[in-house]
Amino acid sequence: MNDAEPASESADGPPRRRRRDPEGHRAAIIEAARHTFAERGYARTTLREIARRAGVTHGLITRHFASKERLFLAAVPGNRDLEQVAAGDPETLPDRIAAAFVRRLETDAVNDPLIALLRSAASDERAAAHLLVAMQEHSAVVYRSVLSPGESPVPGDDLDTRVALVGAQMIGVAFSRYIARTEPLASMPPDRLTEHLTRILRQILFG
Amino acid sequence: MNDAEPASESADGPPRRRRRDPEGHRAAIIEAARHTFAERGYARTTLREIARRAGVTHGLITRHFASKERLFLAAVPGNRDLEQVAAGDPETLPDRIAAAFVRRLETDAVNDPLIALLRSAASDERAAAHLLVAMQEHSAVVYRSVLSPGESPVPGDDLDTRVALVGAQMIGVAFSRYIARTEPLASMPPDRLTEHLTRILRQILFG
C-alpha cells in the first residue's frame, strides 16, 4: 500500500487504529464520505475532499471503492448493513427492516446520506435518481435471498414491484419526518413509528 | 367588482366566458396559479405574476383567495377535489383515493403543484412544509367525515396518524414515479399502480 501514510506508532502499547491497517483506512473514508455527502449532496461532493477529511490519498479511495458511486453506496448505512438486517426468519423480515430503518435515522438523520440523496433527487440531479435505483436493486437482491432462499431469483416477478413500494413508503416517511418535518410523524415516538411501518411493510411485501 | 377589466363583449351571441363573471375569473386565476407554482416553486411565485398571467388585477386575486397560501391550496387538484373524491361508501374510500391520485398525476404531473411542493420542501423551504401540513389537515377532516359521519371528530385519535401515513405513501410514490423516476414504479401502468396503492392504503387506514 504505497500511498498509505507513514506509520507513526507510539511505543506504549498497540494504537487503537493502526496507520497502515486497510480496515482502519476504509472506516475513516466511509466516515468522511458520510459527512461530506450529507453536507454537500451527492453531485457537489468530490473524492478529493473526502480524501482530505479522511487524511488519506485520492488513490487510496479509488483502490478501496473504485468510484464515487460505489463509495456512496458503501457509505449509506441502510444499504451497507442490509444483508445483516435482513438475515433471519422471512416471516419477520418487515419487522427487522422497519426497526433498522427507524433506529438508523433516529441515530443521525442529519448525516444520513439517504436524506441528502432525496434532497438531491428533488433538485433533479439524475445521478441521485440513479443511486436510488441502485439502492433499490440491492434491496431486491437481499430481500429475495431471504424470502426465497431455495429458489433462483426470477427477474421481473412481482417482488421488484413490492420492493419498490417498500422503498416508496420509506422515502415518504423519511421525507415527512426528517425533511418537511410534518406532524404527527415528525414527533411520533420511534417505537410507535416502527410498529406502524412494520404493519404497512408486511402488507406491501406479503399482502 | 370595480377592479375587473372593462367588459368588451362582441355583438354576435354570448361570449364563452363573460369578462365580469366571478367564476370565470376564479378559474383563470387557478389555472395561472397552477402553472406558475409548478414552474417557479412556491417561494418564488408572486401573486403579481399570477395576476399578469390570468389577466386580472392583484386586488382581484386577494379578494377571491385572501393569500398566496390559500390560493395554493385551492390550486392543488388533489386538495381541491378531495371532498368530491372521498364522498361515498367508507369501505371503498381507499379505492377512490388511490384512483383519483394516480389519475390526476397521470394527467399532468409536470404542472401538478404537489410535485413543485415536494421539490420546494426538499430544499428546506419551511413555507412548503407548512403547506404539506395544511393539505394533510384538510385530508384528515375529509376522511374523518367519510369514515365516521355520525360521530364527532376526536382530536388526536389514531386517524391523524393514519392519514399522515397515507400521505407519506403518496409522497413516496409521487417522488419515485414522477421526480426521481425510478423503475419499476416510473413506467408501471396506471391501473396496476392504482391496484397496489389501494391495497396499501386500505391496510394503512383500516389494518
Automatic annotation (TrEMBL), chains A, B:
Keywords for the protein's UniProt record, in alphabetical order: DNA-binding
Entry GO MF terms: DNA-binding transcription factor activity; transcription cis-regulatory region binding
Transmembrane segments: none
Chain segments carrying region Disordered: 1-24
InterPro entries: DNA-bd_HTH_TetR-type_CS, Homeodomain-like_sf, HTH-type_TetR-like_transc_reg, HTH_TetR, Tet_transcr_reg_TetR-rel_C_sf, TetR_C_16
Species per Swiss-Prot/TrEMBL record: Streptomyces chartreusis
Name of this chain's protein: TetR/AcrR family transcriptional regulator
Record's keyword annotation contains Cytoplasm: no
Residues of the DNA-binding region: 46-65
Domain named HTH tetR-type: residues: 23-83
